[in-house]
Amino acid sequence: MPYYSDDIVEEVRSRSDIVDVISRYVNLQKKGSQYFGLCPFHNEKTGSFSVSPQKQMFYCFGCGEGGNVFSFLMKYENMTFKEAVEELAGKAGITLPQREMTYQERQRADKRSRLFEINKEAAAYYYKLLRSDAGKQAMDYFTKRELTLDTMHKFGLGCTSKYSDSLYKHLREKGYEDEILKDCGLITIDEKRGGHDKFWNRAMFPIFDANGKVVAFGGRVMGDGEPKYLNSPETEIFNKSKTLFGLYFARKTRREQFILCEGYMDVIALHQAGFDNAVASLGTALTEGHAGMLKRYVKDVYLSYDSDGAGQKAALRAIPILKNAGISCRIINMKPYKDPDEFIKNLGAEEYEKRIQNAENSFMYQIRMLQTRYDMTDPEKKSDFQKEAARMIVMEFPTQLERENYTESVASAFNIPKDALAKYIIELGRQGITAKKDTGHQPQEQKKTMKPRDDGMKMSQRLLLTWLVETPEIYLNISPYVTPEDFEEGVYKIVAGEVFKALEEHQPVDTARIVDLFMEEEDRKTVAALFNTTVGELTDNSDLSKALKETLLRIKKNSLEHAQKSGADLKSLVEGKKTLQRLERLNISL
Ligand SMILES: [Zn+2]
Question: How far is Cα 161 from Cα 138, in angstroms, rounded to an integer?
Answer without folding.
Answer: 10
